[in-house]
Amino acid sequence: MNVRVWIFCLFPFAAFAQGFAGLGSDAEGFSIPTPDPAFDFPADHGPHNDYRIEWWYLTANLQAADGTPYGLQWTLFRSALAPEKGDGWRAPQIWMGHAAVTTPTAHHVSERLARGGIGQAGVVADPFEAWIDDWTLSGDWQTLDMTASGPTFGYDMALTARGPLVFHGDKGFSVKSAQGQASYYYSQPFFEIAGTLDLPEGTVAVTGNAWLDREWSSQPLADNQTGWDWFSLSFDDGAKLMGFRLQQTDGNSYTSATWIAPDGATTAFPDGAFTADPGETYQTKGGEVPVSWAVSLPAKGVNVTVDAINPDAWMTTSVPYWEGPVRVSGSHTGTGYLEMTGYE
Amino acid sequence: MTRATLHALLSHWWRNPLQLFTLLAGLALATALWSGVQAVNAEARASYDAAAATLGEGQYDRLTRRDGQPMDQTIYVRLRRAGWLVSPVVQGRLDGVRIVGVEPLTAPGGIGPVNLSQDADIGSFLTGAGQLFGNAETAARLPDLDVIISPQTAPGTAVTDIGVAQDLLGKSGRIDSLIVLPAQPQGRPALADIAPELTRQQAQGGSDVGRLTDSFHLNLTAFGLLSFAVGIFIVNGAIGLAFEQRRPVVRTLRALGLPLRRLIILMAAELMIFALVAGIVGVALGYVIAALLLPDVAATLRGLYGADVSGTLQLRPSWWLSGLAIALGGTALAASGALYKLSRMPLLAAAQHRALAMAAGKRALAQGAIAVCLLIMSAVLMVTADGLIGGFTLLGALLIGAALALPLILDQILRVAGGLAKSVTAQWFWADTRQQLPGLSLALMALLLAMAANVGVSTMVSSFRLTFTAFLDQRLASELYVSTEDARQTAALIAYAAETADALLPIQSAETDIEGQPTQVFGARDHATYRDNWAFLQATPDPWDTTFAGQTILINEQLSRRAGLDLGDEIRLQDQTFTVAGVYGDYGNPIGQALINEAQFFRLYPDVMPDRFGVRMPAEKVPEFVAGLEAQTGIPPSQTINQAGIKAISLAIFERTFTVTTALNILTLAVAGFAILMSLLTLATMRVPQLAPAWAMGMTRARLGRLELMRAVLLAMLTAIVALPLGLALAWALLAVVNVAAFGWQLPMYIFPWDYARLGLFALLAAALAALWPARKLARTPPADLLKVFSNER
């Protein structure tokens, strides 16, 4: 049978939150995020099985000694088929891992799927480890080790946090629509990262910065929302910007953004403050996507152009989307990651 | 006007109900034959595909425990966490159904039959709610379980989630094997480092089973096409005669002012309705034929190819449609010519009863020219054709050319016979037979094709059987086959066999490359088994002597064809050169094979350890040997294969194949016989004016009837004589051109004179039966009818 068919049944539509969550607005017995959350670490680094969907989502902008830019992705999604518990093969948790390395001319992708309950994939909070098959992300969140590999690539990375955790929306309660759909959402955007990439052309030593997102919810998107454009930008002056735009069926969009000062202090912006307008497009294997964006956050004087380093960063995974490193120019300069769903 | 016309047209059928019956029955029979063969073919193929898809059996490498026992589930997790992309499978039997548990998220694409467009609830499948997928028959055998009907699932198999299967089979926490996915990530550790208790079984590469099955299906398809050709001739004949007979009606209607256009539309509509009715009856009849044949076909495939084919038939829309299309298309094809003639006919053209015969004379030349062209084309193709399209073009040109040539050949024979005749009656008989020939030619062509198809297909199936049994004898010459798992078992087996068996023949092979072709080289021990049992397609006078002396090499046909190697050519293996001393048939094997002496083999491939052995001993000692083997060496019976059992099954299967072939033979002949009956009946009324003078001059009606019967048998005999070489040419084309194009190996052709004689007898019988009624009718024609011929102005 076609795994893709299975996935489409598991994830009824392909728009997730920082990527993905494939869920309608129906919570069906799962817990629902409520305002004013109180996080408990390290427990909250672990899974929340009473919520339907959750992810550990790491992206990194890397550079080789010769200045060549690279992008890297390590993602683990958890999707619960049912709120009730079960063990062994009956555990209702499905895990999906995506790993990618983007070079200026190539985009390597690999995907893993696993059932929860038998040890093939999972997350434990303390000591923290997230894994699927031989892909792992483990450590104490001050330092993390990360590996993944596919048929054409592999990587082995070490990460060190140089700043605090950052909470989006209202203290980590991130609203996703005018109707009130929301998720719990925090990040560690201050990782320094170093390690090696194994690519068909050879092994490359790289360094750079990485951004780890944690998000969980049971119904993050509204019925009329069809896709998602998500930006994580790291400016050369040390400030960072997370912004997303949710596309709606009526042609309008819902936006939200978090300004992260170099010391980790955050300012959350409601719908409309952040804008992202698509420019030049590129025909990928999966669909035509904008690979140049005009992004602005006037309240912080941001007025930049975001360009894909490799426009062909289409993720040929069960649920396809575009995810790749970007270059920022204009009022601010820097690098970042862009994710686009709903363009199929 | 339309109403009146219709009434007039249809009144023809009221007055000639027999003709209506023959038209409908002819069409229905032709459709039935076509759709019956199609149905059997489609059904067998669908079942086979489902079986092959259920576990992608043989498509992927597998990991199993060395001792064949189930492994702990933690091994799966251990391998996955080490980077090995494997997917677990658990199997077992429950109430006679094979339960297969798969893990859908990690299984490779194409594994498992689950169709989610049906009412499958994916969540309940994955969370152990107990859903299984199986065909209707399987569901009936598991009444207490939640079986979702999925026709693509292999017969006798239910597929479910691994967790459910573990519970059902009492194998909690255990799995039987791991499928190794083709694409693996970089840098994973060796299997021996993570799971030394597991062994890897190679995929069966393209599966020779599939190729043999394809061969069988191709043969059935060829039969289907031939029966279609026979059917088209019959439909053509039926319609042509119906039009011919209605010429007076047409003349009258047109003279009364009916526009030609409307007349043609009405006649076409009338025919299409007939075709539809006959087509529906035909498809239903084909279903009955297929249902009767299917258990045999199913058994054929099951036993011979190991493909599990269910003995039940499903009504598939595809062959409903194709059957109706054949009926409608055939009618349209046949009617278009007749309608065209009708449109060109002068308004008051006499309603000549002999129009057909007279027109035939003018057409003969053109027909002869086309026949000669087609036969020349097929002769050229016999030498040059390669590829399937060439092969089928050859078949088509040969059959149509021969069919078109038949009336001309018969005409010449009758002319010569007529010239030799002495008595007046004999001269009249020959001349009258010649005169009838055009009216009967379509039916005779159908008989020719039916006979040729029978000769061709019987020859092919019988040759296939002889070749394959010889091949089984060659490959399964030893009474018992034993496989060993390690050096200890091998040593124990050698010691045990030295005391108890006549000979132990190691089966050892190495993969290599000969002239760019992937090839398995075997090392054979000098033993009479080889000399006695192996048959060569080409060989030097003493291939085994020179091979066992280490000078020569024996290769299979595939390698010979693909690498262009012939007897006397040299093959280099590492530092040694061998001369080709023999080419042997190796049916169903997709790759090259070569055989050298054991001593040379050990020198060239010192690392290969034999792990399969043929054991020679008197057949009756096998059970004793197997029992002793387990007691003394610990090699369980599951590691042995009793050759006699395999051969018995294979032979039983071929008997089944024969049942199918014979049934189809009789059906085609019946259809051809029907065509003759129909032609004779239609000719009978037309012939009264020609018979009346003979009667008036003193020939009795009984004698006329006897001559009528004799004539039919004579024509059938002449046709049978022409059909024999045609059938043999057909068989040759199937075996030597089509099979080579499709599968890369040629089946040797054997001749079966007794079978042909029997077939000829059947054909004569069919013709005699067909002529019996018309002859009897003739013998009882009221003298008044014959007298009327002289009173009526014609």
From TrEMBL, chain A:
Signal sequence coordinates: 1-17
Pfam family, one: Lipocalin_9
Domain AttH: 53-218
SUPFAM superfamilies reported for this sequence: AttH-like (SSF159245)
Keyword Cell membrane in record: no
Record InterPro entries: AttH-like_dom_sf, AttH_dom
Entry's Gene Ontology molecular function annotations: hydrolase activity
Keywords: Hydrolase, Signal
PANTHER family per the UniProt record, alphabetical: BLL1000 PROTEIN (PTHR38591:SF1), HYDROLASE (PTHR38591)
Record protein name field: Putative secreted hydrolase
Organism this protein belongs to: Yoonia sediminilitoris
Lineage of the species this protein comes from: Bacteria, Pseudomonadati, Pseudomonadota, Alphaproteobacteria, Rhodobacterales
Automatic annotation (TrEMBL), chain B:
Every ABC3 transporter permease C-terminal domain range: 222-345, 665-783
Keywords: Cell membrane, Membrane, Transmembrane, Transmembrane helix
A Pfam family recorded for this sequence: FtsX
InterPro entries attached to this UniProt entry: ABC3_permease_C, MacB_PCD, Membrane_comp_ABC_pdt
Gene Ontology CC terms: plasma membrane
Transmembrane segments: 220-243, 263-294, 319-343, 364-383, 389-410, 437-457, 666-688, 709-736, 756-773
Residue intervals of the MacB-like periplasmic core domain: 442-588
Name of the featured protein: Putative ABC transport system permease protein
Primary localization class, coarse: membrane
Domain of life: Bacteria
Record's bilayer topology term: Multi-pass membrane protein
Localization (cell): Cell membrane
